[in-house]
Amino acid sequence: MSDKLYAYGVTEDGGDLAVDETGVDGADDIYTVSHGPLAAIVSDIEELDPERSDENVRAHDDVLRAVLVDAERTVVPMQFGMVFEGKRPLKNILRTGRPTFSRSLNDIEGTYELGVKLVADEGARVDRAAVEADVDDRLSEVSVGTVENDLFSDRLVFNRSYLVKRDEREAFDEAIDDIEAAHSDLTLQYTGPWAPYNFVDIAIEAQ
Fold it and tell me: What is the pLDDT of residue 125?
C-alpha cells in the first residue's frame, strides 16, 4: 500500500465521510485525513505525478461532487494533481493554512458552482450586451456570486459561473428554464454542480 496521498479538497472535520465514487488512478477508497477542525479528502496513489487523462479529471470532479451533493458537505477544492508524500506533510498544510481554509469554507458554506453558457448559431447576429444584461439579471437574484469566464469563441455569447446555495438550486433551475425559453435562438449549456473553483483563491503546493 502506497504512503502517497492524492488530495481532492478540504472540508470541515465532521467524522466519517462516505463517498461512493472511484477516485483518481482507480482508487476505490476515499477517506479523510484530519488536523484540528479541518479534514482533507484523499485517496491512496502510487504516482507523484498522475496522468491528466479525461478519466482521472472526471474522477477528481466526481469525488468532489459526491462530497458536495451526496454528503452535503462544503468543500474547498484542490486543483487536479495534488499528491502528498504521506499524512505528515498534508497535515502540515492543514495546520499552516487553517485560517485561510476556515475563512474560505465560511465564505462558500452551503454552496456549489453552476456554469452557464449561451452559444449562437453560426452566422447569427446577436445583441450580446442585451443577452448578458437579461441573463445576469435573472440569475443574480438566485445566486450569491458570479464570475465572468472567457468568451473563447466568436459564437459564445455568455459564459459565467455562479455560486448558488443548495436551497436556491430549484429557483436557479427555474430561472435557467425561463432563460432558455426567452432566448430560444441560442443554445444554452448548463453544467454542474461543481466544486466552487472560481470562488476560492488558495495557492497550495504539494509536498
Answer: 86
Q: What are phi and psi of 145, to 5 degrees?
A: -170, 155
pTM of the model: 0.86
Site of grid cell 483563491:
201
Task: Select from 113, 121, 119, 116 the least CA-distant residue to 178.
Answer: 116
135 part of a folded domain: yes
118-160 residue pLDDT tens: 999 887 888 999 999 999 999 999 999 999 998 888 889 999 9
Do 83 and 15 belong to one domain?
Answer: yes
Helix (H) or strand (E) holding 180: helix 169-182
Phi, psi of 147 (to 5 degrees): -135, 130
In the Cβ-directed half-sphere of 75, how many Cα atoms lie within 13 Å?
A: 30
Q: Please list the residues that pair with 190 across neighbouring strands.
A: 116
Same domain, yes or no, for 69 and 146?
no
Domain residues for the domain of 120 are 111-197
Cα 165 from chain centre: 13
